[in-house]
């Protein structure tokens, strides 16, 4: 998989060959909820982390002070 596959949550899901239904089952959500999340640009960090982990990824946040 190329980095470009991960530019969106939808891309990450597809890169792992998961359908919206597959992901919905892993997250205990409806496929329509997955569709909505894929269109959102402002997911809460906790939700984003759970979603990334559900498709087999990991996420690491780094905070830099100015």
Describe this structure in words.
- By secondary structure, this protein is mainly α.
- The protein has one domain: Orthogonal Bundle (434 Repressor (Amino-terminal Domain)), CATH 1.10.260.
- 52% of the residues lie in helices and 0% in strands.
- The protein is globular.
- The protein is built from four helices and no strands.
- α2 (20-27) packs across α3 (31-39).
The fraction of residues assigned to DSSP E strands is under 5%
Mean pLDDT: 81
Shape: globular
The value of Rg in angstroms is 12 Å
The secondary-structure element order is HHHH
CATH architecture: Orthogonal Bundle
| CA(first)-CA(last) distance | 34 Å
What is the C-level CATH assignment?
A: Mainly Alpha
Number of E strands: 0
Task: Tally the structural domains.
Answer: 1
Pairing-aware structural class of the strands and helices? mainly alpha
- CATH topology value: 434 Repressor (Amino-terminal Domain)
> How many DSSP helices?
4
Low-confidence sequence ranges: none
Reported for the largest beta sheet, the result is: none
Tell me the helix content: 40-55%
